[in-house]
Amino acid sequence: MPLIPGLVCWIEVSSSDPAGSRDFYAGLFGWTYQIDPDPHYGYYTIALREGEPVAGLAGIPVQPEQPVAWRLYLASADIMYTAEVLTRWGGQVLYGPVEAPGGSNVLIGADPTGGVIGFWEPGPPWVFHTTDHGSLTWAELNTWDGGRADEFYGKLFGYHQQQIGDRRYVDYTSWSLGGPTMLARLQMNESWAPNAPAHWMLHFMVDPHIGTDVAVNRVVELGGRVNIYPYDTELGRIARVTDPFGAPFALVDPTTRLVQPPTSIADRAGPKI
Question: Dihedrals φ, ψ of 184, to 5°?
């Protein structure tokens, strides 16, 4: 993929049971795996969908206080500069910058609203497959301070930001760099648990021949749990689930979009957990 700073370039999930995570996602998405034999990198695992890299599987989080989670990485042209401006503009460096497999450099930080985010300076060549079933199709920052998030990420990467909510019931902006949009942020409100931290919610496309509802049943069969049952939005039919080891994510079938946008995405989704 071309190195364009600010584009989604990788995702990975942490786990207390890497073998169990491999079994779960293989059963849900049909992933196969390549495991790095070098113990220096913790036997890092690349998940493949029909031979194309779609995600990484790691061990426990690099920071013990961080929960098991899916992590989003945005491309950086200069990881040292990214670390510098992250702190200068109100964020925090949590880990790195360090060298990663393939001659890459990686940094994990927190934005000024508290959302944990990764930055990756890929070493060529770099391949990351998205927007097909079993892969990432949408990444959404859920935060209590949408305006500050817009300002920070807009300054960092120059995103074009478009408000697609009504600002009264839902404050929701999409972020793009002139091409297909994969990023957005949602401002949390009183319908969310008051202690919910800012976080990224990664949306994976389900096979439209199966659909979101059947995929949710499969999550439960494989040992995961449902946080929010399927609901319809203009993005597609979405459900929020958690894998057996505590990492939350979303499932979406974009072929079943609402023709008319709802008054409030939050109203369609029901209460947040």
Answer: -160, 170
